[in-house]
Design goal:
Number of helices: 5
Structural class: mainly beta
Radius of gyration: 27 Å
Largest sheet: 9 strands, mixed
Strand order of the largest sheet: 25-26-24-23-29-30-31-28-27
Number of strands: 40
Shape: globular
């Protein structure tokens, strides 16, 4: 049966599973990710009898961060109250949007002494409100046996006594590959008799402590191993090993996916594949990073790139760890150390002639790198960005029988809806530091004519699951969408080659059951009024100090919902809760128009990002300010480099003043 509410489904199917010898699985999803924010009714368990072999499973089989994942958004109450003994939650997005009182997102309190609660691949998100004490997961009873695995627990807030995971009872808690961020105490297990096993857990951005496991009198038992903290508390419980303290983490998204440049958690956890093999996105772990996300997918196919290396009996296929792929290479002795994207540790064992090891190289093009490896005497280096087609690639273009394969990549951006990176290939591709997922699409040929019209290109993208169709229906044909088409060679994937990248706008769109078809081009400037100024393909004329943030530029900044100054010794925090912010740590921003706080916090600052909805002002001290924020503030970048990327980051690409799609070597008047 299909239900519109998880609570209704539970109520209609309540049963004594032990007597019946059954278990039950509820498959959850969102019908329409464009218009449907999700379920809104708090979930309780009533009328059930469960056992170790007769449990309740509530799951979505993809990532909780998928557009179609099941969302439970509840105001003024917890999302789920687990008042049953054997329950599994998997792949759910639980979000308490507001709670003007002490409250929890997920409340766990089993009924009997024998129980097992598993929370797997879930997002557990608090309201990020520093006015009331909140907890992401609250374990209330002694004897509760709770496992949290591959979960992102976030935004319980920085008000003292708030926590990401909290218990005051003598329970059993197992934490595996979780990420806990932006809570006063990220993990707070304070009751006497807590038995805790904490492995591969990442904690970041807590004003109180990342790990707080009260063991002052030795009353708690267990171990914390291969965990990482932004403060010094990852070794909070004596006897741990492999822990990393005072780390800085680099995230690729506001959902706390690890960036491939991260050095705090990427690839430094321990292998738990005897228990589970995937991460929060239901993707197979190969790096075994610390935290819920395993890191960027390694999709570079290097089959054939080692052909010709004497003695090599096999070629590497899609790799993250090349260990053993060169095991049969006679005379190879030495090792690649410290690789992490792809992970190359131990890949080349026993080399008698390799005189230098390759340090961290990233997703590097290996073509030729080990050709004639017996004479290789130095480390591979990463070349500079290529603005023109390299001679070796030109040779590959002229000689079609060379080993490189030519592929289309597509970056598709519809503001407020989606950003997709697609590769017209049977496997994903890692190009210039960005993963492109394999997908079915076609790029039409540009017409050849001499009538002076602006060339237009047809892009067809598979309409599988009608995801793209829903997006164009919600945006009047993807109005304002931008597309970058990139022609790449499988031998040259490390650095962007701008001569082979083409920027377009979506001019029209239509769909049928199999395809969504986009007409790409640029609006014809000859049919529009134009000011008497130069038009450049790569530099917006509105980025000058005189025109930036003016009427033509259109960028006004980001509305700020709150500014807090908690205590002496802590920086001023700036909040943009309604839509989140787009800033990064180290950005320089101006804060303008703030009211209610003395002295005024208006000014220019370098910032440190705390979460997707708040950041702190470097060099400030909360104790220097008084009063409550009265509204009116705007945060904005202080300047602009004039690039289309800068406009995209500001969500202002529709106002970009240059001419994407022109030949990069040309400036037109």
């Amino acid at each position: 049966d299909a239900y519109t509410s998880l609570q209704t489904a539970l109520d209609d199917n309540a049963a004594d599973l032990v007597t019946a010898g059954n278990n039950v699985v509820f498959h959850c999803r969102r019908d329409d990710e464009v218009t449907n924010d999700g379920d809104t009714a708090t979930v309780y368990f009533s009328g059930w009898t469960t056992g170790a072999a007769n449990d309740i499973v509530i799951e979505y089989d993809g990532s909780p961060l998928d557009a179609g994942a099941y969302h439970l958004h509840v105001a003024e109450n917890e999302c789920i109250n687990i008042n049953e003994d054997y329950v599994t939650l998997r792949g759910l997005y639980l979000y308490t949007t507001s709670y003007t009182d002490v409250g929890d997102v997920l409340w766990v309190g089993a009924l009997e002494a024998a129980n097992a609660i598993l929370i797997d691949r879930c997002v557990i998100r608090g309201p990020n409100d520093d006015t009331y004490k909140h907890r992401g997961v609250y374990i209330i009873h002694a004897n509760d046996n709770v496992t949290l695995r591959n979960c992102l627990i976030r935004d319980a807030g920085q008000l003292p006594m708030s926590a990401g995971i909290n218990s005051g009872a003598a329970c059993t808690v197992t934490l595996q590959n979780c990420t806990v961020v932006n809570c006063w105490r990220n993990i707070w297990l304070g009751g006497a008799g807590v038995e805790v096993t904490c492995t591969n857990v990442l904690c970041d951005n807590s004003d109180g402590a990342d790990f707080s496991i009260d063991n002052t009198s030795g009353q708690n038992t267990g171990q914390v191993t291969y965990c990482a903290s932004s403060d010094a508390t990852a070794d909070d419980l004596p006897g741990g090993s492999g822990n990393r303290t005072n780390q800085t983490f680099t995230y690729a998204s506001a959902s706390y996916h690890l960036d491939d440049a991260d050095t705090g958690a990427l690839g430094v956890g321990t292998d738990l594949s005897g228990t589970f093999t995937v991460d929060i996105d239901n993707e197979t772990r190969s790096l075994w990073s610390i935290g819920a996300d395993d890191g960027p997918a390694a999709t570079l196919d290097v089959s054939g790139t080692l052909a010709g290396a004497s003695g090599l009996s096999g070629a590497a296929s899609v790799v993250r760890d090349l260990a053993g792929t060169l095991a049969a290479a006679s005379g190879l002795s030495g090792a690649l150390t410290g690789g992490d994207q792809p992970y190359l540790s131990g890949a080349l064992t026993a080399s008698a002639t390799l005189t230098a090891s390759l340090s961290r190289v990233g997703p590097v093009d290996l073509a030729g790198a080990v050709a004639a490896f017996s004479t290789l005497a130095g480390a591979l280096t990463v070349p500079e960005i290529d603005t023109e087609i390299p001679p070796a690639m030109l040779a590959d273009m002229i000689l079609p029988n060379t080993s490189g394969t030519w592929l289309w990549l597509c970056e598709f951006v519809v503001p407020t809806q989606t950003t997709r990176h697609l590769a017209r290939n049977t496997v994903g591709v890692f190009y210039a530091g960005q993963a492109y997922e394999e997908f079915n699409f076609d790029v039409g040929r540009q017409p050849f004519n001499g009538d002076g019209s602006i060339p237009r290109v047809t892009l067809r993208i598979s309409n599988v699951n009608q995801q793209m169709e829903r997006i164009i229906n919600a945006t009047q044909g993807a109005l304002g969408g931008e597309v970058k088409l990139i022609r790449v060679n499988s031998q040259f994937l490390t650095n962007p080659i701008t001569a082979l990248e083409y920027d377009y706008q979506v001019l029209a769109a239509q769909s049928d059951r199999k395809w969504v078809t986009f007409q790409l081009g640029i609006p014809n400037p000859l049919t529009q009024a134009a000011l008497l100024r130069d038009y450049s393909c790569g530099m917006c004329p509105y980025a000058t100090p005189e025109l930036y943030r003016g009427v033509e530029c259109g960028y006004t900044g980001l509305a700020i919902t709150d500014i807090t100054h908690s205590a002496t010794g802590y920086p001023v925090n700036v909040w943009a809760v309604t839509y989140g912010h787009y800033f990064s740590t180290g950005d320089q921003i101006s804060l303008e128009g703030a009211t209610g706080i003395t002295p005024s916090p208006d000014g220019i600052y370098t910032i440190t990002v705390g979460s997707g909805v708040h950041f702190s002002l470097d060099g400030t001290d909360g104790g220097d300010y008084e009063g409550t924020y009265g509204g009116g503030a705007v945060a904005a970048y202080t300047d602009c480099d004039g690039s289309i990327e800068a406009c995209r980051k500001r969500n202002n690409a529709s106002r970009y003043g240059a001419e994407p799609g022109l030949d990069p070597s040309v400036t037109r008047v």
